[in-house]
Amino acid sequence: MDASWYVLLALLLGFAIGAVSVHLLGVAAQRGRQVMAISSEPVPDGIAAMVHVLESAGIVLDGSNQVILSSPGAVALDLVDGRALRSPEILDAVRRVWRSGEQEVLELVYRRGRIGVGTEIHLRVRVAPLGNRFMLVLAADRTEEMRLDGVRRDFVANVSHELKTPIGAISVLSEAIEAAAADPERVRSFAQRMQLEADRLARMTKALIDLSRIQSDDPLDHAERVPIARVVEVAVDRNRVLAESKRMRVLPRVLDEVDVLGSEELITMAVQNLVANAVQYSPEATHVGIGVRAADGIVEIAVTDNGVGIAPEDLERVFERFYRVDPARSRVTGGTGIGLSIVKHVAASHGGEITLWSRPDQGSTFTLRLPIAGTTAPKEKA
Ligand code: ADP
Description:
five-stranded mixed sheet; alpha+beta; binds adenosine-5'-diphosphate; single chain; Beta-Lactamase; five-stranded antiparallel sheet; 11 helices
């Protein structure tokens, strides 16, 4: 073969290789375009905007269950990891909905966070097809709602238990009176006990009404200037009979005369409860002190007694509704177990707090701390 043939052959071979390469590159590019089209298929108009304004978490998935849109809420709840859903339960639901075409609602406990055990949150998740190419996942955080439900359930259970006791006692005593009709002495004794239980029931109902009123009302909505010196005076006065019955003296010492903003009735009720407890839980013929002093924009009303005191393990719990360190003793004194939860609520709703120092057999100091009402700047002399 002469040289010109070799050249022609080489040219043909080169051309063939080039053509095959160009074809292969074309095929690869087309495949690539298809993949792009699947994963970034345009989401119908309006859906992206809708997902971004959703209050609950919203996620849109494509046909291969890849996340193509997620709302800020979904990110905050940590539901997506790149383009994947983090929760296997939600992914399973998505697969079921693809098969059935019917939307699904599921309740699940989800662990947010990737380090350690994470925070447990309760989610209500709705999975629904969005046309036939996308899937919408909506998730609402129900953790707080569930917690409040629990608090409400406990409260109702506690109230019914607390009310049942005196009601049951009244019923038993009335039967006893009937049976002892011929014996005036016993009738009198049963009737007296019945009166005690009825009083207890009345106090409990009043305390519950007070508590629910405080919880539903914001005292700062219709706040007035409340002089603390007057609050202390009235609180002491309302406990005078109780203190005298135990030969006790309540000694107020108001070092600073200041006002706070809020409800005079509620603040007085709080201080009155603290003084009543100080008297109730102290031996006869002891003293109760009330000190008022102001510093750094805060007024402290400290009620101190030399009574039975509270053990360290009960210090936090005494502010819970219906919690009593010694239920039997509290029954004798006519306690409702609600007084301190009222104090705690009044403190919190006035932007303050209640603190407690106590030692068993030594006594207790409850300190109500409230922000002082701002004083108007003194007028400049002309
Ligand atoms: P109660 O009506 O039973 O007094 P409170 O909510 O006012 O209910 O108080 C809850 C519990 O805290 C009381 O039952 C008592 O055990 C304890 N407690 C409150 N104040 C004092 C105090 N000054 N000294 C000792 N224990 C107290």
